[in-house]
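cron nightly-structures :: item 1 of 1
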Amino acid sequence: MLRPYVHLPADTVRGALAEHSERELKSLTESWAGLPVDRFMKDAATYRRRRYSAFRFAGNSLVRTVHGAFRQSTEVNPLHGGVAREFAPMEEETARSGVLRSLVLALLDELPGDFDRAAGSIGVHQIRILASRDETGLPAPEGIHEDGHHFVAQVLMRRDNVVGGESRLYDREREPLFRTTLLEPFETIIIDDRRVFHGVSPIEPGPELSIGVRDMMLVDFMPLTPGGRGPSDGAARQP
């Protein structure tokens, strides 16, 4: 059986994006600057910014589906589950980015298990976590958790003036499997969400500035079939 996770160095992922110019890569990473505040955070916390859109593949084309709410059960996410979270969609230029398409294709090739792209749904989250002297940033406020999908890719897009943010993986008995701190843009961890739990330690600002920034792209892979853990095309998901 395949190991339930993959750790991809930044150079490996960037190699899969070699057809794109540095300008194109920069255009994608800079799109995190316009993310709105995640209004579904508990206790009115403001350190998380977020956009979300769902996609499917039509041949080799990445096609955005009808925008809908993002749902997780309370069993999977006791902190934020059970609520139809209506995040702002990804901006049109970002959703149509050739870099995004190439990145998702590259992640598909590295999944630690089988996935039928013709019958699969792909959710893309743009998430920015801010850390300040007044508010510690929590990349995973749920603690050790699962997301309720088949596979999840965690792609670092930017890390600036940040201390902490260690990614941690656990088996189904919550025994530690792997830990690392993502440091370089496009460094990636892909997990089989059915076989591991995961978490990320808090981040705090470093000594250089008053604000620390950690930008992540999370890519969810799940089946479209009614019996799977994912939704039908265009529907809000309910694990």
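cron nightly-structures :: done
Confidence is low (pLDDT under 50) at residues 225-239.
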